[in-house]
């Protein structure tokens, strides 16, 4: 991109723009106003586009004294504009510079037939789709810069591109283009930059490109190109950048490459099928800054790069390069000349011998050193400690030995330290506390001994700590609980003793804990269940006693085998999956699901169980129900303003086409008899599509209403990529004109025969629907919990599993729809936002205890009472129940986000509650 900008600024004096106020061209004004009209402009970038200002002074509009009063440029990069790029711009006959990069424009790439004068077209970083239509380009014979990178364009690069003789720079990178690189590029003889990285191009690189003798930058990395790079390319003497990483290029590099391409600054051919030696002539291309030949099959020695004074990155990892014992480390002497060297990656080669002492003479800029996976031996030279700028050091999987204390602790900028798989000895020194920037630490598979120093608990940025397979002794220091960012903790196969610190549950990011093969004693902390991210826990081969905490159910992998655990094995979650849980070698365990083949348990006390369920199950159930009701009541005053129901809808080819007439037919011409709801943006009708006899709900947007179009777009946008069984499913969208030629927007959903939750909770429509059994029944507690689970699942999906997190912004009973089986579906995405854009909610001043009797549905209160009376816990069960209820609800409405449970936790809690509740109910029915 910088290169393109440079082209623009160097070649054209875009700065000296003047405006001739006397001349005004009405066509230009109309075209601009049309552009403004059809473009979404959330940040009001086009605010100055009004009649009180001369259009030559409008933001982004450029006029030129050579064509008095005529618009020659539209420079609106990075203004958050979106919508389709209107063809009306083609009516601005003198338009030369069009820059709409870094916006959200979507739809097809516009045809450029009318843009005869265009010199620069920069549309990079938008969401344009579709093919580059060959004919659309041919008229742009003045085009010099064409940047379409970072869009979603597909199909081949049209061969016609070669007829754009003025072309200097073309950038197609980061799209989904396929097909071959057209050889016709060679007709655009003035081309300086050709970039097509990160597409799906195939075939070989055309030798014709070798005719483009002015070429500076040639980029085709990240495609599926095969064959050799044709020899003429290596004759492009002015070439500065040759970028072909991640392809399937199979060849040996020409031995004189450094002499034929003397201006090379960047050579990136990593991740291909290159073989043979690395040409020593590369060391002559003195401008080289980046050499990436990693992940190929190069053999032989590393040439001397000592003349490359500007070299910053030398990446040769994962080849078959050799340094024999005691020999050929000379190339390292040369590298000490490279005072800009920042990165040296030589991992996974065949380097032998000791790391030379002169490594300490490398540049102070030196930041990344990887020598892992070689055959290095001896001690690490203490001079390595001079490299105070090191950020990333990997020496893993070699045969290095000795102590690390002398050099490691002066590397104060280290973020990643990997010493795994060597024979380092000694203890973990207290001076490790110096390495306060570490995020990744692996000392695994060495011979470290002594205790785990508590100072490690001060490395608060650590996200991964692997100390496994050493001889570490003593207790796990409770200070480790200070590692709030830690995701992976591996202490397995040491000689650790004592208890697992209960405080470990404060490391809320932990996903994996491995402490197997130690001598740990005591209980498994129940608080592990509070680690919301935890998926894998391995504690096998220790001396742990006590019971298996049911709080471990949400894990996906659990190994507790070979301990002294006792008691009943839980049956839910991970315990229900015999392939994910290991419990063998614990003589005191019993029960569990049959697949575990554990001995059955003696009968347990029924009374304790009831108590357990009352405390663990009932209170949270009511808690969540009250939350829903609370939210509902809090929204009561807004109720009248939003009562539509809607859902998710992409506009894509795989959705059936429905015409305006189809909808007229389906809804009996939108008759009142079919009307089932009205909201601020439109009206919802029941209907039956004639083609497939499907019952549907049709939401017709009232486009007179301000924001209705936006609401339609918002729903389509939010729901483009989401699909979940608890989200109201869209059948299709209809964007057309009605019989009078006015714009018409509608969304078509599955019809939900049981209406919305609002009706059920408040018996709305009782009068209207007399005889309809929907309206007369009350929801049972089981149904209510199911609905809560459905909606929690849907929200969890929106927040955590959809492509981009989506905030619904309008969850309330009237937006929760019920199908025939009373399964709940969340609808109405009219104000949903990928980034929160909701108006402020009534908050804080909301709930006081005096709200209780009004909040709780009278029918729910009955059930609540019934259950509470069976309890042995409370003296005043109704009061107790209601207070607990409100407490849980309030805890979910805490103002600070980090105090609130997130949707994933809430969803899994409610699911567990539902499961337990149903089990409990079944048991009760049996015992009655
Ligand atoms: C404005 O531009 C149009 C289209 O190029 C042209 O036909 C017309 O003569 C111009 N009007 C003036 C006043 O320059
Ligand atoms: C652009 O010009 C075409 C015909 O040349 C005309 O039909 C169209 O309305 C014009 N659009 C605008 C926005 O001026
Ligand atoms: C462009 O180049 C191709 C070969 O690369 C050639 O056949 C063709 O005639 C050239 N001219 C045009 C106008 O495409
Ligand atoms: C490269 O250029 C030289 C000198 O111009 C020429 O002799 C040689 O044939 C060219 N090689 C290729 C492969 O085009
Ligand atoms: C190295 O970089 C400097 C500064 O960017 C530049 O002036 C110099 O010409 C470069 N050296 C070579 C040999 O390209
Ligand atoms: C650790 O356990 C092993 C095997 O159970 C045992 O041989 C060893 O003595 C124990 N070590 C300590 C320090 O308790």
UniProtKB/TrEMBL annotation:
TM helices/strands, residue ranges: 613-635
Signal peptide: 1-19
Pfam families: LRR_1, LRR_8, LRRNT_2, PK_Tyr_Ser-Thr
GO MF, one example: protein serine/threonine kinase activity
InterPro entries, sorted: Kinase-like_dom_sf (IPR011009), Leu-rich_rpt (IPR001611), Leu-rich_rpt_typical-subtyp (IPR003591), LRR_dom_sf (IPR032675), LRR_N_plant-typ (IPR013210), Plant_receptor-like_S/T_kinase (IPR051809), Prot_kinase_dom (IPR000719), Protein_kinase_ATP_BS (IPR017441)
Topology with respect to the bilayer: Single-pass membrane protein
Protein kinase domain boundaries: 670-928
Gene3D superfamilies noted in UniProt: Phosphorylase Kinase, domain 1, Ribonuclease Inhibitor, Transferase(Phosphotransferase) domain 1
Gene Ontology, cellular component aspect: plasma membrane
Keywords: ATP-binding, Cell membrane, Kinase, Leucine-rich repeat, Membrane, Nucleotide-binding, Repeat, Serine/threonine-protein kinase, Signal, Transferase, Transmembrane, Transmembrane helix
Alphabetical list of SUPFAM superfamilies matching this protein: L domain-like, Protein kinase-like (PK-like)
Record PROSITE patterns: LRR, PROTEIN_KINASE_ATP, PROTEIN_KINASE_DOM, PROTEIN_KINASE_ST
Keyword ATP-binding: yes
Family, per entry: Belongs to the protein kinase superfamily. Ser/Thr protein kinase family.
Protein name per the record: Protein kinase domain-containing protein
Organism of provenance: Brachypodium distachyon (Purple false brome)
């Amino acid at each position: 991109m910088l290169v393109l900008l440079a082209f623009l600024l160097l070649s054209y004096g875009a700065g000296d723009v003047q405006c001739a106020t006397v001349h005004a061209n009405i066509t230009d004004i109309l075209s601009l106003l049309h552009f403004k009209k059809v473009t979404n402009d959330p940040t009001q970038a086009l605010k100055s586009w009004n009649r009180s200002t001369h259009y030559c002074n409008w933001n982004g509009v450029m006029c030129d004294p050579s064509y008095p009063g005529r618009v020659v440029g539209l420079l609106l990069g990075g203004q958050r504009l979106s919508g389709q790029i209107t063809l009306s711009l083609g009516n601005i006959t003198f338009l030369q510079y069009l820059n709409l990069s870094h916006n959200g424009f979507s739809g097809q790439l516009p045809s450029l037939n009318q843009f005869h004068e265009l010199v620069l077209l920069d549309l990079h970083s938008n969401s344009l789709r579709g093919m580059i239509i060959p004919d659309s380009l041919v008229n742009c014979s003045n085009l010099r810069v064409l940047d379409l990178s970072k869009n979603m364009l597909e199909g081949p690069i049209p061969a016609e591109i070669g007829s754009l003789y003025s072309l200097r720079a073309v950038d197609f990178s980061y799209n989904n283009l396929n097909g071959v690189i057209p050889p016709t590029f060679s007709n655009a003889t003035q081309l300086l930059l050709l970039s097509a990285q990160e597409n799906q191009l195939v075939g070989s690189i055309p030798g014709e490109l070798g005719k483009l003798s002015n070429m500076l930058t040639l980029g085709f990395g990240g495609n599926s190109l095969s064959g050799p790079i044709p020899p003429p390319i290596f004759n492009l003497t002015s070439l500065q950048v040759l970028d072909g990483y991640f392809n399937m290029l199979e060849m040996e590099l020409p031995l004189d490459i450094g002499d034929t391409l003397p201006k090379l600054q960047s050579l990136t051919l990593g991740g291909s099928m290159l073989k043979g030696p690395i040409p020593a002539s590369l060391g002559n291309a003195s401008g080289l800054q980046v050499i990436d030949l990693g992940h190929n099959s190069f053999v032989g020695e590393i040439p001397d790069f000592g003349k490359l004074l500007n070299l910053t990155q030398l990446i040769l990892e994962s080849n078959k390069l050799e340094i024999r014992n005691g020999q050929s480390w000379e190339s390292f002497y040369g590298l000490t000349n490279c005072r800009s060297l920042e990165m040296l990656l030589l991992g996974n080669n065949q380097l032998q011998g000791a790391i030379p002492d002169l490594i300490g003479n490398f540049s102070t800029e030196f930041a990344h050193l990887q020598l892992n996976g070689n055959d290095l031996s001896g001690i690490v030279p203490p001079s390595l400690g001079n490299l105070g700028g090191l950020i990333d050091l990997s020496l893993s999987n070699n045969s290095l030995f000795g102590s690390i204390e002398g050099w490691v602790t002066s590397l104060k900028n280290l973020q990643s330290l990997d010493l795994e798989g060597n024979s380092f000895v000694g203890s973990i020194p207290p001076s490790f506390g110096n390495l306060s920037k570490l995020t990744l630490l692996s000392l695994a598979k060495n011979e470290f001994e002594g205790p785990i120093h508590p100072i490690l608990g001060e490395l608060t940025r650590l996200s991964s700590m692997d100390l496994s397979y050493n001889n570490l002794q003593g207790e796990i220091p409770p200070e480790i609980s200070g590692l709030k960012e830690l995701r992976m903790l591996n202490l397995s196969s040491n000689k650790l003793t004592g208890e697992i610190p209960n405080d470990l549950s404060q490391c809320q990011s932990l996903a994996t804990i491995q402490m197997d093969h130690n001598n740990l004693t005591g209980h498994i902390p129940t608080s592990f269940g509070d680690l919301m991210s935890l998926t894998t826990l391995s504690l096998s081969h220790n001396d742990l006693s006590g019971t298996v905490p049911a709080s471990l159910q949400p894990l996906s992998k659990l190994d507790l085998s070979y301990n002294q655990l006792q008691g009943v094995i839980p049956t839910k979650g991970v315990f229900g999956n015999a392939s994910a849980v290991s419990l063998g070698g614990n003589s005191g365990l019993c029960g569990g699901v049959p697949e575990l083949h554990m001995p059955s348990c003696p009968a347990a006390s029924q009374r304790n169980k009831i108590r357990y369920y009352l405390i663990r199950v009932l209170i949270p159930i009511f808690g969540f129900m009250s939350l829903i009701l609370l939210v509902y009541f809090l929204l009561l005053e807004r109720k009248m303003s939003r009562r539509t129901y809607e859902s998710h809808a992409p506009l894509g080819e795989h959705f059936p086409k429905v015409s305006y007439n189809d909808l007229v037919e389906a809804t009996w011409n939108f008759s009142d008899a079919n009307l089932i709801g009205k909201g601020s943006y439109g009206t919802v009708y029941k209907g039956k599509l004639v083609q497939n006899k499907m019952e549907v709900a049709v939401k017709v947007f009232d486009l007179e209403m301000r924001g209705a179009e936006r609401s339609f777009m918002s729903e389509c946008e939010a729901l483009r990529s989401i699909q979940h069984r608890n989200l109201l499913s869209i059948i299709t969208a209809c964007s057309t004109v009605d019989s009078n030629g006015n714009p018409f927007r509608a969304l078509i959903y599955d019809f939900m025969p049981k209406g919305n939750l609002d009706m059920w909770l408040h018996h709305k429509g009782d009068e209207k629907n007399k005889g309809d059994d929907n309206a007369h029944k009350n929801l049972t507690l089981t149904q209510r919990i199911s609905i809560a689970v459905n909606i929690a699942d849907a929200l969890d999906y929106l927040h955590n599993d959809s492509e981009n997190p989506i905030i619904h912004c309008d969850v309330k009973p009237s937006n929760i729809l019920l199908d025939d089986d009373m399964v709940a579906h969340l609808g109405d995405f009219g104000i949903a936002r990928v980034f929160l854009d909701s108006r402020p909610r009534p908050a804080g001043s909301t709930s006081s205890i005096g709200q209780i009797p009004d909040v709780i549905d009278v029918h729910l209160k009955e059930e609540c009472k019934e259950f509470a009376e069976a309890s042995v816990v409370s003296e005043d069960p109704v009061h107790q129940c209601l207070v607990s209820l409100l407490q849980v609800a309030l805890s979910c409405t805490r103002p600070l986000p980090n105090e609130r449970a997130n949707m994933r936790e809430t969803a899994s809690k409610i699911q567990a509650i539902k499961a337990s509740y149903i089990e409990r109910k079944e048991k009760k029915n049996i015992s009655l």
